[in-house]
Amino acid sequence: MKSILIKDTTKEEREQIVKSSLDCGGGCENCSSCWLGGGSPWDIYQDYIDGKKEIRDINMEYMEKYRQDRQIH
Asked: Distances from the Cα of 33 to the Cαs of 14, 36, 42, 67, in angstroms?
């Protein structure tokens, strides 16, 4: 598997990584994530696409913000 780190990818590759990762097969119309407060996945991962922040860091920040002190592993 190829590295997904910013230093190893182009912006176009990062866009494809995010797009592929978000494709659960069910389509967005049946998903409740965005309207339950999670926000637009494209907005969440824009810093990764733009090469500003690693996807790992975005995921960690997201979990800290939305798990609300629950012990989720």
From this structure: 22, 5, 12, 14
DSSP tally for the chain: helices H, then strands E? 4, 0
Domain of residue 52: give its range. Answer: 6-66
Whose structure tokens read 């969440």?
A: 44
The radius of gyration of the chain from alpha carbons, rounded to an integer in Å, stands at 13
Whole-structure pTM value:
0.72
- The proportion of the chain whose per-residue pLDDT surpasses 90, expressed as a percent, equals 40
Nearest Cα residue to 14 out of 49, 45, 41, 46: 49
Number of domain units in the chain: 1
Does residue 62 register a pLDDT over 70? yes
Average pLDDT over residues 18-32: 66
Question: Is residue 71 one of the residues assigned to a domain?
Answer: no
